[in-house]
Design a protein that fits this description.
The protein is an alpha+beta fold. Among the domains are: about 220 residues, Transferase(Phosphotransferase), domain 1, CATH 1.10.510.10; about 130 residues, Rossmann fold (3-Layer(aba) Sandwich). Helix content is about 50%, strand content about 15%. The protein has 33 helices and 18 strands. The strands form five sheets. It has a six-stranded antiparallel sheet, covered by helices on one side. The protein has a five-stranded mixed sheet with strand order 15-14-16-17-18, with helices on both faces. Strands 7-8-9 form a three-stranded antiparallel sheet. Strand 3 and strand 4 form a beta hairpin. It is elongated. The N and C termini lie far apart (about 110 Å).
Length: about 850
Amino acid sequence: MAVDPVPIPPQQSPAWDRVKALFFEAIEVAEEDRAAWLTGKCGGDPALRREVESLLASDRDAGSLFETPAAGLPGAGSYGGNARRLAPGRRLGHYEILAFIGAGGMGEVYRARDARDGREVAIKTVSGALAHPQGEARLLREARHASTLKHPNICAIHEVGEADGIPFIAMELVDGRALSAVHGDIPLPIDRVLRYGIDVADALDHAHAHGLVHRDLKRANVVISSDDRAIVLDFGLAKHLPEQDVSSSVESLTSLGHGPVGTLSHMAPEVLLGRRADARADVWALGILLYELASGELPFGGRAPLETVSAILTERAKPLPHQVPIALKLVIARCLEKDPARRYARAADVRDAVKAIRARHAWPVVARLVGTSRVVRRGAAWTAATAVVVAVATVLALKSTEPPIASVAIMPLEHGAAPDDAAHAEAMADAIAAQLGASANVRVLSTASVRRTGRTPLEAGRALGASAIVAGALRRSGDGLSLDLRLVDAGSGATKWSQSFARSQREVLVLQADAVRALADRLHATLTPDARERLTVVPALRPDVYEAYLKGRYEWNQRTAESLRRAVAHFERAIALDPSYAPAYARLADCYNQMGTVLLGSGSPLTYRPLAEAAAIKALQIDPNLADGHAALGYVRHYSWQWADAEQSFQRAIALNPSAPLPRLWYANLLMSKARFDEALQQAHTARDLDPFSLVVHSNIGWILFNAGRPHEAIDVLRKAVALDPSYPQAHWRLADALAEAGFAEEARKEVEEVRRLTNRSPSSLALSAVIAARSGRDADAREALAQLDVIAAREYVTPALRSGAHALLGEVETALDWMERTYADRANAAAYFAVDRDLQPVRNHPRYHALVRRVGLADVRVE
């Protein structure tokens, strides 16, 4: 006959406040001295000592303290102060107890046999619900609701009853081991993480659909069955404790008898703050579970419960190991959003996202994933402000015997007549071209060059030397976007493929990714692994953020001093609306870079370059793979004379997007600074191949040839640039220099007059006048232009870089060197070209010149 054990008197369970205080003191005592210390502190109170020693043991056990159910912390009142262990042979109704299995915060679990049919079950005896009779009754009532759940990944509840005054729940006896025992503190293989995550998320989705929230999801409540399924236990138990037992503040976590429901390390912030839990609290716990399985540790930790609570409420999750796929990192980060409104709304969303990730890791696929994702990287640590990933479809990538198409031109998209439709269409074409060029082994010709042709798609493609042309239309209607694309063979004019895409305006970036993936497939191009990742986990974007960015981008493209100021305002608005939108920071950085130049500058580089550097670094903190961010930072470093770092930044930008012409052009200018003219021309010519009708590319090729001592070649290139667009001042500027160097003084003077007209007699045009006049022996005209420059400089900022060349050519060596010193002090871009600037040839033998060249890191540069 079974004999009940003697109940433990309630007074032997010491107050939690006292236990907590002693625990915090004890962890500061050396381990070898603790026994004596505890003897002195606990005296003749063995129960107090046992509680403190239990916490100390848990503290040593790598986080096991925080696996303790909060309702079962010391002082939380298991069994209302009484502990009853059922002996084998004891009967509960028609169930015979066979063996004790284990204990939890809500009661004890036994193996039992149903006398009616011989079936073995698990019996869970339910505690007094924190010594609250009404809570016990409600707990059992809700457990009956949970018994309606029928799902292969949920432990079935057979019966909820009471016998001999002991409430119990009869459940399915699962043949397996708890997930905590299966995996311990070792990260699981990613495929198993994904598989178990899918099982658990599917179980949660089923329960949520039936109006039940788990509230205590953790490894110990998940069993891995003999057929390797994850089965969730204890549905319906944790949610339905009485309202007065749910903590209403963080302080209540330490109050005797009122511990919060669940397990501290897995509780969502809103639960810790006393708010009611819904399905998103389970999504949080699912994120904790996935994090543990992938890393072997908890994302938030502390040596004591209050430290854990503080970490959950205020700190970011610790970074996951590098081997965890970024897509899974983003899913977990979204689950662990502290604001429940920014988490997944449904466990089904998590399940579908994890399914898509698993499919993508299992075989070659193109996965279409939708969501919001704002990722920040600082050092090696990834955090995410938002990351929603909802799988829409998974399509096997079909192999093709057709050869890949080598080059493609993206035509301007047709669009509606609304005021912003043109800007949206232009941005979409540019974005598709940039993403395709960055993602696949295909040469994508610049959309700017395509637009300049002013021809039909077929004519433009042939003029640019493209193998294929992409044409189409973008339509906006209410909140919707639709994109129609077609791929046309440049030789025959035949349409090879067409497809339509539709998304909401929030999903404009997803629409772009859809189009890029489809295009890459039809071009038979190979996507890089990084590109597959970026095109799979795609950010959504608020329409007002995108509108501000589009307006800034339009103004940035105009490349005037006034338009750059307007662009800055638009980009700053986009950032204010969404501080995690990396492209806005990258474009803002470029605006500041250009605002510190000779042609466009309205202020000192000492003002603008730190702003540019900060914006570029911010862009890369958010998205380390943003080519524009690396290019902007390379620009800053070039003109800050950080030569090796600048070269590395440009090379990284080019590697990330080989089809982007601007990073190559900026890199060419850096190579020119170092008199590496052949390498500079190679990069510039590649930029020209990508953007055949680019004015700035042609102008810079002419500038490189001029500084390399090849003025006649420079003239040929620059005349072509002027023919492309006679209103572009920089082409006329560089042509004037080359003509003067080659001895064509009158033609050079005419080009100077054109620059002065086009720039409204800007300071830079006056400086050019002085240089060309000095080269041509018209010293009086040169000094008159310099005097006019002095008048302007008296009322507004004029970069000192404009003066040194003219004074050097006039033979005023010391004055020229004085202006060079000021150029150096102002950190003007021109200082980076001290070693190769042909206007400075008359001062190259002066000791002051050599000292300046050495200070900017160009002492080793030699020019013939």
